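Example 3.2
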Amino acid sequence: MALLHIRNLEKHHGDVVLFPAFDFTIEQGEVKAIFSSLNVRTVLLDVLMGTESSPNGKITINDKAYVDGKAAYLSQVGFLQLNAGIYTRLKVDDQLKFIHRLYGKDRQLQEVLQDVQLAEKRHQVIGKLSESEQRRVHYGSILLQNPALYVFEEPDLNVDVETKRVFIHLIEKLKKEGKGVLILTSNMESAITVTDHVYRLDEKGLHMVKTESSNAKSLEEEVASEEKTFQFHKIPTKINDKMVLFDPPEIDYIESVEGQVNLYINGDAFPTSFTLTELEERLMYFGFYRCHRSYIVNLQKVREVITWTRNSYSLILDDKPKSSIPLSKTKMTHLKDMLGVK
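Structure, written as tokens:
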């Protein structure tokens, strides 16, 4: 059953096309992410909330449409916006009890406190919590609403590792309950970590983000390719009209999104014409590792390996922005073997 059904939705600002008409659905137990610019994300969120109209298209949530009845529509969906307000003078317990009284008792308050890891801070004033802990209060508030569909805007932006872990476990819980989850984000790593169903929405429309499949050469082929008189190891990129060459040790990680491959160095992205597979072959002997179908990481830059769930992992780098890179389940097993860890 489709919890969210968007049909023929499009949006223009004057002569500028924000996004052309598209269709999109989320079924029970599905988690999907839409990756977009801030402007597109804001408009889409406003349309979903009914605060901005669209002359074309129709949105239904659990078979309820906003135009057919605002109250019935909004009762089916819970929104957690990036700039959501909070009563900082209240205690955590008081804030969540207030939400509990508003939305009924389908969820137990103690269970929610445990889910968001705030049971030990339930009597603390919200204003004295860290920003990440305040974000968990938001998670608890939307959990207590218990809608059919959850819509999160940048849910784990700038939060600490523990809060990100809480959010990932929360998403797993909602999937098991048959809820639908839509994540609106400008952070590709965040989208990939939480779900494999990632879509890009822009002026070209809505399309699934394609990731490059691994097709590395065998070790024998790699050794043979190294038996040359001269080896050039620098990786070229192009910036405006300049060609810039980087030594492999300078590179923190490499990302591929829909065929565009970028090298990341101290938080800055540099486009390259090589495919991810070509770079994997070139950089194998410099300590680079294909940690995900869309990422290659410089293992010398890895500071932490984090386990979110049994199937979700990330690598935290020792670069300037402390980048977080997804690590696939199969690659986690291989990496443990490489490190000699059981």
